[in-house]
Design brief:
With 456 residues, the chain is α/β, with parallel strands linked by helices. The protein has helices at 21-30, 58-64, 75-88, 99-110, 124-132, 160-170, 194-207, 218-228, 237-246, 272-285, 296-309, 312-331, 349-352, 362-374, 383-386, 414-430, and strands at 45-46, 92-96, 116-119, 136-139, 178-181, 211-214, 250-254, 265-269, 344-348, 376-377, 379-381, 388-389, 395-396, 402-406, 437-441, 452-455.
Length: 456
């Protein structure tokens, strides 16, 4: 088979600065050793997130010029609504400024204090929105999803047995809906199978509990289903996506991922009563129902982007880039979560830097070393992000110490990836000299964004 090439060529370029190692050291020091506090111009390859960091196509930029900025009833909204309905088959479509706004509207309208919301794995903003209204967010990831080294095709699945026992334990009256996140970002960007989505729906129908899908990466999930699940090889990604949505009663979306835009989101549902509640909350929090939190031009770009994400050449390229990086990691024996997910490679920092104890934050040591060595910005998903303090005030580490290299869509070329691999190669020889960190300042919530570190 021939090399899978980028199914696009470059029309507009953006300068990419490579500042000296000395300057990077200075910049990191100024940022209190927290890469979230760096200026983006000081990062050469920015793998902090795949959210809102993609490049738009010529068709998207052209569509933006058609943006109608009327307050109500714009044709831009109708085009957006038609596209979202074509993919999701849902009756009601509400645009929002990003994914968490859709989650917030869902949470304030459908959840009451004391409720329980199971999910395969909640994303952090989903969890925060649920906890904000006094409910409990439960992660019910399948057992293979917890084993970093185990190769399995659908490690993002929800554990359906656990789901049934949770429904029995908490009572269906306390579970206003169950969620599924596809792909499962928190568990390494791993997909959920169509069978798992269908089985979940069948269970929930028995208890009359609605299913809400977090569909930020629905097209990447559809591609995994096409590649890995029997019976889907000949189907188009649009057909697969439609089947996924068929099992859902509502869905939340961050268009910053598989909408291939830099900002945007939506909420869709079939139920008239839910739609009435969403409409009222949307007007209060986001804007009128035909623009949500977005400009008309954003709606135009997203309508085009959603369909481009379902193009199989695009998905083949997208998955090939992540695989390319993973293969190189295999070659140099850099440990990562296997099989590689859809939007990122998750390096196992605990295995890579075994001499740094979890509470000396090996993930931060690796993130900072990647920045100093090559100007690569990544993110820690370990004890800084997910650690907690127990009742006696003692800090408890997270179960895993991962570093995520999230791949922006259509942004970096193969030589950028080769460069990333070279930086890792270099680091492999220096890994024994890496030191851990201590936290010198931390805010009360979501500390990873703004806390300060000092090298030990
Ligand atoms: C699975 C998942 N759900 C929800 C969100 C929140 O979306 P946004 O950042 O647009 O608010 C994200 C963002 O990364 C995500 O990955």
């Amino acid at each position: 088979m021939k090399t899978i090439i980028e199914p696009f060529r470059i029309k507009v370029t953006e300068p990419l600065q490579i500042i000296s190692k000395e300057k990077r050291k200075e910049a990191l020091k100024k940022a209190h050793n927290n890469v979230f506090l760096l200026n983006s111009e000081d990062c050469s390859i920015d793998l902090l997130t795949d959210s809102g960091t993609g490049a738009m196509s010529t068709k998207q930029w052209a569509a933006m010029m058609l943006g109608d900025e009327s307050y109500a009833g714009s044709p831009s909204f109708r085009r957006f609504e038609n596209t979202v309905k074509e993919i999701t088959g849902m009756k009601y479509v509400f645009p929002t400024h990003q994914g968490r706004a859709a989650e917030g509207i869902l949470a304030v309208t459908r959840i009451k204090k004391g409720d329980v919301i199971p999910n395969n794995s909640h994303f952090d903003t989903t969890r925060a929105n649920i906890e904000f209204v006094g409910a409990k967010a439960l992660d019910l990831i399948c057992p293979e999803g917890l084993d970093n080294a185990r190769e399995a095709p659908f490690k993002g699945n929800i554990d359906t047995k656990k789901l049934e026992s949770v429904i029995k334990e908490y009572g269906k009256e306390n579970i206003p809906f169950v969620m599924l996140t596809v792909t499962n970002n928190t568990s390494g960007g791993q997909p959920a199978s169509m069978k798992n989505i269908r089985d979940t729906k069948v269970i929930l129908q028995n208890y009359n509990i609605p299913l809400v899908i977090d569909v930020c990466r629905f097209a990447e999930n559809a591609y995994f289903i096409k590649q890995r699940e029997t019976g889907y090889k000949e189907k188009s990604l649009l057909e697969i996506a439609r089947e996924m949505f068929k099992y859902a009663d509502a869905a939340t979306m961050s268009l910053k991922k598989d909408g291939l835009v830099n900002i945007g989101g939506f909420l869709v549902c079939n139920d008239d009563e839910w739609a009435e509640d969403f409409k009222n909350a949307l007007i209060l929090r986001e804007g009128f129902i035909t623009y949500g939190g977005l400009a008309g031009r954003d709606l135009e770009a997203a309508s085009v982007g959603l369909m481009e994400a379902l193009d199989s050449d695009y998905q083949q390229y997208r998955h090939a880039t992540v695989q390319y990086l993973a293969k190189a990691m295999d070659q140099y024996k850099i440990p990562y979560v296997k099989p590689v997910g859809g939007h990122a490679v998750f390096i196992d920092a605990r295995a890579f830097i075994p001499h740094i104890k979890p509470l000396e934050y090996p993930g931060i040591a690796l993130v900072n070393a990647l920045y100093i060595s090559g100007g690569i910005r990544s993110v820690e998903l370990g004890s800084v992000m997910f650690g907690h303090y127990d009742n006696s005030g003692t800090e408890q580490p997270a179960p895993l110490e991962l570093v995520r290299l999230a791949i922006p869509r259509r942004v970096y070329t193969q030589s950028h990836f080769d460069y990333i691999v070279e930086v890792f190669q270099e680091l492999k020889d220096e890994v024994r000299q890496l030191k851990g960190y201590k936290i010198t300042y931390q805010p009360k919530f979501l500390r990873h964004f703004t806390c300060h570190f000092e090298s030990l």
